[in-house]
Design brief:
This protein is α/β, with parallel strands linked by helices. The chain folds into two domains: 157 residues, 3-Layer(aba) Sandwich (Ribosomal Protein L4, Chain: A); 41 residues, no CATH class. Helix content is 31%, strand content 14%. It has seven helices and six strands; from the N terminus they run E-E-H-H-H-E-H-E-H-E-H-E-H. Strands 2-1-3-6-4-5 form a six-stranded mixed sheet. Helix 5 links the parallel strand 4 and strand 5. Helix 2 crosses helix 3. The longest helix is centred in the middle third of the chain and has 17 residues. The radius of gyration is 26 Å and the shape is elongated.
């Protein structure tokens, strides 16, 4: 399919051919839900921890005798029924992460890209950088594509997050609604909830090759 390529001024300068395998898929809500929940689960720290009655510090002696007081029976002060006692079935540190089939994850990403392109939330923009590294120079580019402070996602041509241009990363550090992603390190959650996605032209070409070939980098 043909798609317009915009300049940093917001003007159409040429067209690019996008793969139907990557940008022309029908919606698949199930696989998108699966991918987003997988990412959220993998990001959970799982450090919540409580003490049961065997771990609470305190005496094991009965606080008062069993009978004759008119009060309820108490085994010790660490009972879950008392303030400061243990917690019944409380959380313990655990690993919430689980693996997801690669084909399903790639299908989710391609489905989201297709949906964003269909509803005109995704635009192809010429490759650019911010030589000055200043936030205001980057905002001058973004305002040509975004009406308000909506969540903006910029897909770069870099192969990894740490390789993203330091100047453009520094320029966007003060913009809370802006996220940069490498075309090889996409996240379903960020793609789905991004109100506007700007894909650099070289990244769009690599997305065609990378996902159309089953996730293998273009040679």
């Amino acid at each position: 399919m043909k798609q317009s390529v915009y300049s940093t001024d917001g003007k159409i300068i040429r067209e690019i051919e996008l793969s139907d395998v990557v940008f022309g898929l029908p919606p698949n809500q199930d696989v998108i839900w699966y991918a987003i929940n997988n990412e959220l689960a993998n990001n959970r720290l799982g450090t919540a921890c409580t003490k049961d009655r065997g771990e609470v510090h305190g005496s094991n002696a009965k606080p008062y005798k069993q009978k004759g007081t008119g009060r309820a029976r108490r085994g010790d002060k660490k009972s879950p029924l008392l303030v400061g006692g243990g917690v019944v079935f409380g959380p313990k540190p655990r690993d919430f992460s689980y693996s997801m089939p690669k084909k399903a994850k790639r299908l989710a990403l391609k489905t989201i890209l297709s949906a964003k392109l269909k509803n005109e939330s995704l635009k192809i923009i010429e490759d650019f950088t911010v030589e000055s590294g200043r936030t205001k120079d980057l905002i001058k580019i973004l305002i040509n594509f975004v009406d308000a402070e909506r969540t903006v996602l910029v897909l770069k041509d870099d192969k990894d997050q740490k390789d993203i241009d330091k100047k453009i990363r520094r320029a966007g550090a003060n913009i809370p609604y802006l996220t940069f992603l490498s075309y090889q390190r996409l996240r379903a959650h960020d793609l789905f909830y991004g109100r506007k996605i700007l894909v650099q032209e070289s990244a769009a070409k690599n997305l065609n090759d990378f996902y159309a070939n089953g996730g293998e980098a273009a040679k």
